[in-house]
Design brief:
Blueprint: H1 2-13, E1 16-22, H2 28-38, E2 82-84, E3 98-105, H3 108-121, H4 131-150, E4 155-161, H5 162-167, H6 169-179, H7 186-191, H8 197-210, H9 217-242
Length: 243
């Protein structure tokens, strides 16, 4: 009886699928790479190769984009792996599996700027989208997705912020590992972001100087800036001491 229980529990565990989600250009590829470093293999097909917008790769599986057309047979192959699914397609994931969703948030101004940059690189008109209108649509969409996720009994969700991961990768790795079962290599996860404190500080300064932060966001950004500057200062002192 005990043996059968162990076998049953093991089969249930294998049905857990790690989903990395968020808006386009929110940092989902970064998160896929981080989780892969921790020990959960990604489900990818390498069809979309790295480019100047994502020099470290996109970590995508093309069939994900066909879920809204009914192509979900591939989901069985994602058990025990991680797969990137943009927020708009989460509702098309089939029942019968347990999903752990790491949802990446990012300041809307950064997302829109990143999308504009991508359009320019593709030779498309970056001015064809109105930032205010897109920000409003994205904000409403994310609110709807978060509400939907909270109502799904087979979905567990961890929300992480892009700039928080850059500013304090060790804490982010610890939170993600705990959420995903506690068996990941936190040191390897954090190592992918060590040395990016300067980037986090630059993003924080840009957001603070922009003056368009939603209520409650300024304090969080200020804490990120302070932490990043502290890490940079500590790193410089360590380098000087080592010299």
């Amino acid at each position: 009886m005990g043996f059968l229980k162990k076998v049953f529990n093991r089969s249930v565990e294998k049905q857990v699928i790690t989903i990395v989600s968020g808006l386009p250009r929110s940092g989902t590829s970064m998160m896929m790479k981080m989780i892969a470093a921790g020990g959960i293999p990604p489900l990818t097909d390498a069809i979309r190769t790295a480019d100047e917008d994502n020099p470290k790769g996109y970590y995508e599986f093309e069939r994900v984009k066909q879920m809204d057309k009914g192509d979900v047979a591939w989901v069985a192959d994602a058990a025990g792996k991680s797969v990137k699914v943009i927020s708009a397609l989460l509702k098309h994931l089939p029942p019968g599996y347990e999903y752990r969703v790491v949802f990446v948030r990012r300041n809307m101004a950064e997302i829109l700027a990143s999308q504009r940059k991508m359009l320019v690189h593709r030779g498309e008109d970056a001015d064809k989208m109105d930032d205010a209108q897109m920000a409003d649509l994205f904000t409403k969409h994310v609110q709807q997705v978060e509400s939907w996720l909270a109502q799904q009994p087979n979905f567990q969700t961890l929300y992480v912020h892009y700039s928080d991961v850059l500013a304090d990768p060790e804490t982010a790795a610890r939170q993600i590992n705990r959420f995903l079962g506690g068996h990941l290599d936190e040191q390897a996860m954090a190592a992918h972001h060590t040395g990016r404190h300067a980037e986090a500080a630059q993003i924080a300064r840009s957001l603070l100087s922009g003056g368009k932060l939603p209520p409650g966001e300024r304090g969080r950004i200020e804490r990120i800036l302070a932490h990043s500057q502290q890490q940079i200062s500590g790193g410089n002192q360590g380098a000087a001491g080592g010299a």
